[in-house]
Amino acid sequence: MERLYDIYTAIESMSFRSKWDKGVKRYALELIENAVDNMDALTWDDIKEGKIWNGADGVKSFSYGGDRLIWDGDIANRLLTASELKKWNAGKWNGPEMIVLQTRALVQAWRLIKRTHALNLPYGI
């Protein structure tokens, strides 16, 4: 538990410039909060093997199943820049669907958690 708190604190203190990276950071913090809430059922090995997805088969099921943001507008507001958001709102968005973007961001968030854990913080989980 202390280890997850240290990882949470380390990620929380990270500074990102891009809207995408800030969104990934937010997803990572939410994943850790979810893991802490389910700590009785999770070990660090479970988390690093990808069992952080709240009982879903994987990140895709987790994202598509409504375990994170479910409204396209919420996902767009979290991950898109102002100019991208303007295009999306005007119906001129040529990028992937919002749920696909969320899934990609969740994978990157999970990797951020694993990378931060690899910094060998002083506490065990």
Structure description:
This protein has 125 residues and is an all-alpha fold. It has one domain (2-117). It has seven helices and no strands. Helix 1 packs across helix 7 (98-117) and helix 2 (19-37) packs across helix 7 (98-117). The longest helix has 20 residues, at 98-117. The model has no long low-confidence stretch (mean pLDDT 82).
| Average pLDDT rating | 82
Q: Would you report the number of β strands?
A: 0
Question: What is the 3D shape?
Answer: globular
One letter per element, helices H and strands E, the order comes to HHHHHHH
Provide the domain count. Answer: 1
The secondary structure category is: mainly alpha
Unreliable residue runs: none
Task: State the separation between the terminal residues, measured CA to CA.
Answer: 5 Å
Sum up the structure in keywords.
single chain; 62% helix; mainly alpha; 125 residues
Quick structural overview:
With 125 residues, this protein is mainly alpha-helical. The protein has helices spanning 2-13, 19-37, 44-48, 59-64, 72-79, 82-89, 98-117.
Question: Secondary-structure blueprint of this entry?
Answer:
Layout: H1 2-13, H2 19-37, H3 44-48, H4 59-64, H5 72-79, H6 82-89, H7 98-117
